[in-house]
Amino acid sequence: MSPLLIIMLILLVVSGVGLVVFILLHSGKGTGISDAIASSMYSTQTGTSIVEKNLDRITIILAVVFMVSLLVLMVIYPHGSISA
Q1: What whole-number percentage of the chain has pLDDT above 70?
Q2: 32-46 in b/e burial notation, b at 16+ Cβ within 10 A?
Q3: Which end of the chain is more exposed for a tag (fewer CB within 10 A), N or C?
Q4: Is residue 13 left, alpha or beta, with left meaning phi > 0 and alpha meaning psi from -120 to 50?
Q5: What pLDDT is attached to residue 4?
Q6: Are 79 and 25 in contact (CB under 8 A)?
Q7: What is the 3-state secondary structure (H, E, C) of the chain?
Q8: Is 74 exposed, middle or buried (0-12, 13-18, 19+ CB in 10 A)?
Q9: In sequence order, what are the residues at sequence separation of 6 or more whose Cβ sits closer than 8 angstroms to the Cβ of residue 29?
Q10: Higher-confidence residue: 79 or 66?
Q11: Are 31 and 40 in contact, with CB atoms under 8 Å apart?
């Protein structure tokens, strides 16, 4: 296995797991995990909006990293040509 393949696979797995975690942290309609955490940490509404903005930013960054690593793997190793 080439070092590029290993790096891309690690990026793909880490960003995929991170996406799942951070998407689950988003609040749906006031009943999400982030509301439970934010309500205990911040007593004002401005703190909650800062937490939500940071969750949005991290989620977008992870989604971009996931897509780029997936596209790089698709270009470098088309049609499942990875051999062990």
Answers
A1: 68
A2: bebbeebeeeeeeee
A3: C
A4: alpha
A5: 87
A6: no
A7: CCHHHHHHHHHHHHHHHHHHHHHHHCCCCCCCHHHHHHHHHCCCHHHHHHHHHHHHHHHHHHHHHHHHHHHHHHHHCHHHCCCC
A8: exposed
A9: none
A10: 66
A11: no
Q: Which is more confidently placed, 43 or 82? A: 82
- pLDDT for 82 beyond 70: no
Dihedral (Cα; 68, 72, 6, 20), 10-degree rounding? 30
pTM for the predicted model, two decimal places: 0.70
- Only one residue has tokens 């942290």, namely 25
